[in-house]
Design the sequence.
């Protein structure tokens, strides 16, 4: 999602309150339609698998892990499940969840917006040892990302881990073409992202970056950032 590598479609809303109240039905419908093409466009997820491996090495077998924006369940829910973890995957797309349940039948999957995972929501506070959020928060307006990170922090037990993946881009809630559909995305530059994560109550233990060229010509090359974090 290099800002030099794609042309935004339309303009972002100027009112943060309007952005926060956006109906994300269109986002879910886009990913319902994209389906397996997502994994075909992004076949090699080195950074994602490496970050998941870091968390697995830190966790005891049987630990509860939350996979936010789980998509098809590949590779993350599958990776954690194969390592003996109890996985709960969350996604807004019913189509993606159907694929995830097929790919990782041992895991539990829940249809929900990340913004709904607040106190009093469907998941209990402090009930997870780790969370993975790979390219999930970029689907939110910037105005919502700090709150989503705080909600994830609250779902983690003290000292719980967060493996976070984002695309480096200085954009806020802009529409872009993606695999034949239009989605809205946000992003930060590296230092900004780190500050947002730390302000939400996480210690950033390690940062990794990868230049990624998707297999599909419908998606431009992008700089992926992975933060290895612990609940402070």
Sequence:
């Amino acid at each position: 999602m290099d800002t030099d590598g794609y042309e935004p479609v339309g303009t972002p809303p100027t009112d943060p309150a309007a952005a926060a109240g956006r109906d994300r039905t269109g986002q879910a419908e886009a990913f319902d339609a994209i389906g397996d093409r997502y994994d075909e466009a992004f076949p090699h997820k080195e950074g994602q698998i490496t970050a998941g491996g870091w968390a697995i090495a830190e966790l005891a077998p049987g630990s509860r892990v939350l996979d936010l924006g789980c998509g098809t369940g590949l590779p993350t829910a599958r990776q954690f499940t194969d390592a003996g973890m109890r996985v709960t995957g969350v996604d807004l797309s019913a189509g993606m969840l159907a694929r995830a349940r097929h790919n990782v039948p041992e895991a539990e999957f829940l249809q929900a917006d990340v913004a709904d995972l607040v106190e009093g929501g469907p998941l209990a506070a402090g009930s997870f040892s780790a969370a993975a959020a790979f390219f999930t928060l970029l689907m939110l307006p910037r105005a919502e990302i700090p709150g989503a990170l705080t909600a994830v922090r609250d779902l983690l037990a003290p000292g719980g881990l967060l493996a976070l993946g984002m695309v480096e881009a200085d954009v806020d809630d802009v529409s872009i073409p993606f695999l034949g559909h239009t989605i809205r995305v946000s992003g930060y530059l590296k230092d900004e992202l780190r500050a947002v994560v730390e302000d939400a109550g996480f210690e950033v233990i390690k940062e990794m970056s990868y230049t990624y060229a998707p297999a599909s010509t419908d998606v431009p090359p992008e700089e992926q950032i992975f933060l290895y974090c612990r609940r402070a």
Observations:
- The chain has eight helices and nine strands.
- Strands lie at 64-68, 86-91, 108-111, 128-134, 156-167, 174-178, 181-185, 202-212, 222-231.
- The helical segments are 16-20, 25-34, 37-41, 46-58, 76-82, 94-103, 145-155, 190-199.
